[in-house]
Amino acid sequence: xxxxxxxxxxxxxxxxxxxxxxxxxxxxxxxxxxxxxxxxxxxxxxxxxxxxxxxxxxxxxxxxxxxxxxxxxxxxxxxxxxxxxxxxxxxxxxxxxxxxxxxxxxxxxxxxxxxxxxxxxxxxxxxxxxxxxxxxxxxxxxxxxxxxxxxxxxxxxxxxxxxxxxxxxxxxxxxxxxxxxxxxxxxxxxxxxxxxxxxxxxxxxxxxxxxxxxxxxxxxxxxxxxxxxxxxxxxxxxxxxxxxxxxxxxxxxxxxxxxxxxxxxxxxxxxxxxxxxxx
Length: 279
Prior knowledge:
Layout: E1 3-8, E2 23-28, E3 31-34, E4 37-40, H1 47-56, E5 62-64, H2 68-75, E6 80-85, H3 93-107, E7 112-117, H4 123-137, H5 142-154, E8 158-162, H6 166-170, H7 176-184, E9 188-193, E10 199-205, H8 208-221, E11 230-234, H9 238-251, E12 257-261, H10 264-270, E13 275-278
Parallel strand pairs: 1-2, 1-6, 6-7, 11-12
Antiparallel strand pairs: 3-4, 3-5, 8-9, 8-13, 9-10, 11-13
């Protein structure tokens, strides 16, 4: 095999459409521990069951990133490897991938392995994977593919529309006081990526409609280019995701907007009714 595109499971997607000949796409899973139960973020994961377990468990639930050996197993399978990770300031996945690259290059120094720290998650990884596949299909060389997905990532934006913050607070991803106040007041909170790949909550209100209106305003303010794909990922909230898609398409009729369910890791942090939008 000549090419391997491999992502950690924060990418949401599990397959790539129109996969180019000579390219394999793979996902290395996070593991989520809730009490004595472990949920592995594979296509077989029942997200609704995992979310129910979270809602019923009163203790601290945790997530664990893929190990270096899990990454290395895929790095060994191709001459050219493109690896995509969630933000290094949210998880150890990037560091594990870097350790795997060092391990594999000691064994096979002629391999080419590029690791993109997206400083993001969800659609940022999915979009980079799709772009890499397309560029490879166009016959671009390794360096050009890497430069293309890096540019795509640098120009991207992500927002998080959440109604629950318990796991973000418990796992140190959000200020405990902010999360407590928002939860007690039943607020909808909108967050975005900071330049170093953390989460900045910048808007709060009651009601999903107001949050969706603010998302569209923020997209316009950040210069949304309707030729760029939009991905809406939701945690058990297809109706809300559909309404947000309609709102975006009513503003930009030619926008390409896909809606996907959150996989395990993003469901763990976005929690029930949460929505993640990348553009």
